Recover the amino acids of this structure.
């Protein structure tokens, strides 16, 4: 992918005229808002995926390579012409991959021509091989001229429903071995299409219907443990909130729901509380309910002449960012989780700045993503929580409803930049943008937390 | 003149002969039957007249019934027409400006008509559904649609309609009336819909 990235970098250097699907959105400055992304080419480590033939792991290798590419942490280098380079530089028989440990540190008996890979710009080389039933991912540290780590996994058969998630977990382990931070390969995204809730893997595979009724649904939201989600469903003219288990599809109505229009559910990080919006004759206000005991409705805002909606918890559970129309147009506010200390969060120019909606607090707590009306269309913004400054991430087409990946550097959002509304993913560090799926009408995405083995399995 | 006299003479002669044959030489045979016959004839005539009268009465009654039925049907049809007209007036939608929930002045007349209909039909209960166009935020539009439904309800309540007779709903942008991505479609989709919940079978004209 390096050649593609370089091409994008070249285009960006020339100007915004040839803006492709990847690359930063814009470079213009508007009204004191810093727009776009600072692209820093060359700072990412190079990673080469070692090709092999005849081992039957081509699909695993391709998936891992794509996961590592989509992590945007590496310059993934693809070698042309199969494994000829590798074969030409192999100095001896395959190194021993035996030994009971799941991870081996240090390269004792390397078979790689490290100087050659270094010359190609690689910092890491990943080799995926089979040892009996076990799949071994071996990460070579090129500069150190040795094996950084070997990760072993017993992958299920490729027809097994958990196969892809198991491969994604292997990719995340390889990524962690290389750079020491967890990846986002083993995650999923919930979204709404034609009134139904679907899930899809972050790499765009395995789309699956998770709605269990034919009623119109909106606003799916993940529980922090990734085992269940909440969503809103229209029923008899009311808005109902339901909790649904990912694994079983079993769902339960949230206490007190069904009497009014309840919408935009959001879990507290400890999973005890669900915050949501409730529209009544008085307008729309924020409430919380204890979902552990299904009791104890609590009202957080009293709007009277304004609406308060779309809550999102800070990752420490102490604060809730939300939308309020108290300044006239909807803007982003924040309060303590008990409803006290309500104040403006994302600054705006009164009478100038457009409506701001759909806030989501990043998992690292440092940012709140939202969308704002700019010149009659919507754009994705990010608020820096500490400095309370905002920057605009997008400018091509209409972009809305951002949702954070667990790494707090990727956002999925809805965009019509390709001509119809669908889901896209942007990396805030590189500005790289890719479509998640190629279907019209997908909206209201919600990115899962990291899914462990137990949670990723679905019937 | 001579021929006329002759005809007259012949005629008179015939009359004299006829009178002589009836009065002067009555046959005994036809006398008794003649009396009975006269009575029977009279009875028959009376019967026939009664029957005719009954027939006439029956026809008149049927006609009256038919007219009555026609009148009733016409009246019902008129009532149905009137009810349908009232229903149409009641269901007339009102529209909103972009991201606004205030009642536009050109919609107040429509709401005033609904007030009159609700006053003329005390059993009538209605539901107001607020809708938005696709341009706003999907979730915010649920709150905005709620505001739009509440605005219309507040107008009706402030004009004397009991609040308990009016339900409200919001559908946000989830149920567009018109598919399309231009101002024409958007302006039609920013609306309140009015539907009958109960008491709408025979709506009286205000």
């Amino acid at each position: 992918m390096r050649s593609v990235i370089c091409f994008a970098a070249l285009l960006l250097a020339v100007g915004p005229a040839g803006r492709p699907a990847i690359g930063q959105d814009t470079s213009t400055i508007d009204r004191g808002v810093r727009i776009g992304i600072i692209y820093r080419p060359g700072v990412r480590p190079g990673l080469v995926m070692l090709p092999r033939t005849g081992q039957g792991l081509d699909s695993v290798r391709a998936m891992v390579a794509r996961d590592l590419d989509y992590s945007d942490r590496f310059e993934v280098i693809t070698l042309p012409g199969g494994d000829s380079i590798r074969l030409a530089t192999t100095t001896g028989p395959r190194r021993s991959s035996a030994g009971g440990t799941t991870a081996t540190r240090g390269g004792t008996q390397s078979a790689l021509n490290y100087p050659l890979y270094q010359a190609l710009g690689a910092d890491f080389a990943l080799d995926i091989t089979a040892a009996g039933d076990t799949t071994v991912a071996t990460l070579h540290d090129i500069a150190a001229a040795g094996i950084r780590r070997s990760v072993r996994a017993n992958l299920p058969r490729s027809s097994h429903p958990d196969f892809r998630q198991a491969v994604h977990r292997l990719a995340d382990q390889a990524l962690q071995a290389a750079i020491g931070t967890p990846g986002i390969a083993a995650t999923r995204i919930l979204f709404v299409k034609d009134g139904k809730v679907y899930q899809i893997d972050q790499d765009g595979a395995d789309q699956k219907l998770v709605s269990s009724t034919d009623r119109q649904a909106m606003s799916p939201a993940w529980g922090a443990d990734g085992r269940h989600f909440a969503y809103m469903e229209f029923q008899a003219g009311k808005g109902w909130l339901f909790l649904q288990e990912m694994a079983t599809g079993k769902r339960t109505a949230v206490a007190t729901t069904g009497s009014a229009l309840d919408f935009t559910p959001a879990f507290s990080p400890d999973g005890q509380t669900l915050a949501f919006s409730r529209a009544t004759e008085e307008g729309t206000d924020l409430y919380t309910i204890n979902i552990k005991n299904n009791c104890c409705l609590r009202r957080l805002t009293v709007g009277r002449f304004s609406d308060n909606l779309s809550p999102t918890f800070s990752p420490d559970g102490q604060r809730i960012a939300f939308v309020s129309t108290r300044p006239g147009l909807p803007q982003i506010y924040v309060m303590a989780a008990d409803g006290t200390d309500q104040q403006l969060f994302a600054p705006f120019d009164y009478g100038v700045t457009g409506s701001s909606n759909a806030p989501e607090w990043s998992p690292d707590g440092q940012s709140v993503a939202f969308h704002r009306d700019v010149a009659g269309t919507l754009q994705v913004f990010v608020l820096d929580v500490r400095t309370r400054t905002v920057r605009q991430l997008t400018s091509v087409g209409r972009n809305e409803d951002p949702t954070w990946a667990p790494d707090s550097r990727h956002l999925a959002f809805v965009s019509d930049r390709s001509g119809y509304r669908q889901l896209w993913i942007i990396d805030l560090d590189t500005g790289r943008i890719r479509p998640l799926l190629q279907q019209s009408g997908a909206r209201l995405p919600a990115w899962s937390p990291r899914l462990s083995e137990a949670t990723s399995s679905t019937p | 003149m001579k021929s006329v006299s002759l005809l007259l003479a012949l005629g008179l002669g015939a009359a004299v002969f006829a009178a002589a044959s009836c009065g002067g030489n009555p046959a005994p045979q036809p006398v008794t039957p003649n009396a009975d016959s006269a009575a029977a004839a009279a009875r028959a005539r009376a019967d026939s007249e009664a029957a005719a009268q009954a027939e006439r009465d029956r026809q008149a009654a049927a006609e009256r019934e038919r007219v009555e039925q026609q009148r009733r049907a016409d009246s019902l049809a008129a009532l149905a027409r009137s009810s349908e007209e009232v229903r149409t007036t009641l269901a007339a939608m009102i529209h909103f400006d972009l991201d606004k929930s205030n009642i536009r002045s050109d919609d107040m007349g429509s709401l005033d008509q609904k007030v009159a209909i609700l006053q003329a039909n005390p059993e009538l209960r209605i539901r107001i559904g607020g809708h938005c166009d696709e341009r706003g935020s999907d979730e915010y539009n649920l709150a905005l649609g709620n505001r739009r439904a509440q605005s219309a309800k507040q107008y009706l309540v402030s004009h004397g309609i009991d609040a308990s007779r009016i339900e409200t709903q919001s559908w946000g942008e989830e149920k567009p009336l018109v598919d399309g991505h231009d101002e024409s479609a958007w302006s039609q989709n920013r609306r309140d819909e009015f539907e009958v919940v109960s008491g709408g079978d025979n709506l009286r004209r205000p």
Q: What stands out?
A: Residues 1-24, 26-32, 87-110 of chain A have pLDDT under 50 and may be disordered. DSSP finds six helices and 30 strands in chain A. The CA atoms of residues 125 and 379 of chain A lie 38 Å apart. Helices of chain A lie at 2-14, 58-70, 84-89, 114-119, 163-179, 453-456.
